[in-house]
Specification:
Blueprint (H helix, E strand, L loop, with lengths): L5 E4 L3 H12 L2 E2 L3 E2 L6 E6 L5 E6 L17 E5 L3 H13 L3 E8 L5 E6 L5 E5 L1
Parallel strand pairs: 1-5, 6-9
Antiparallel strand pairs: 2-4, 3-4, 4-5, 7-8, 8-9
């Protein structure tokens, strides 16, 4: 069994697509638009076969996202090396994203950093 994909609603679909494509080497499909409901989505595919569906529709609630909360808390991306984690963390920080931890080696042995990416959602970068 494997997870087929993970999905998230976003306010700005194009900005979210650009984030995952531009920073994390995702490949976006052509997108989908339901003319009746105005639902829109993209599937973003990553090198190992993982996929993320980003979606938007009218009338969504947009509650504040506390970093420590129940439910899904972050999406982790394995970049392949400590150097790549360092480089992307620096790039995201320079581009105005908040780095909330790292880069560092955690108590359980992960080398990682955590960045508040698009729309208050936490992105973990790891080896």
């Amino acid at each position: 069994m494997k997870i087929e994909h993970v999905a998230m609603y976003v306010n700005n679909l194009e900005q979210a697509k650009d984030f995952f494509v531009g920073y994390l080497d995702g490949k976006a499909n052509e997108g989908y638009h339901n003319q009746t409901t105005d639902f829109r989505s993209y599937f973003i595919s990553f090198g190992d076969g993982a996929r993320l569906e980003i979606m938007n529709k009218p009338g969504m609630q947009d509650a504040e996202k506390a970093l420590a909360r129940t439910g899904f808390i972050h999406v982790a991306f394995s970049l392949g090396s400590k150097e790549k984690v360092d480089e992307l963390t620096t790039r995201l920080k320079e581009d105005g994203y908040e780095v909330v931890s790292g880069p560092r080696t955690t108590g359980d042995g992960y080398y990682e950093s955590c960045v508040v990416g698009i729309e208050g959602n936490q992105i973990e970068l790891t080896v």
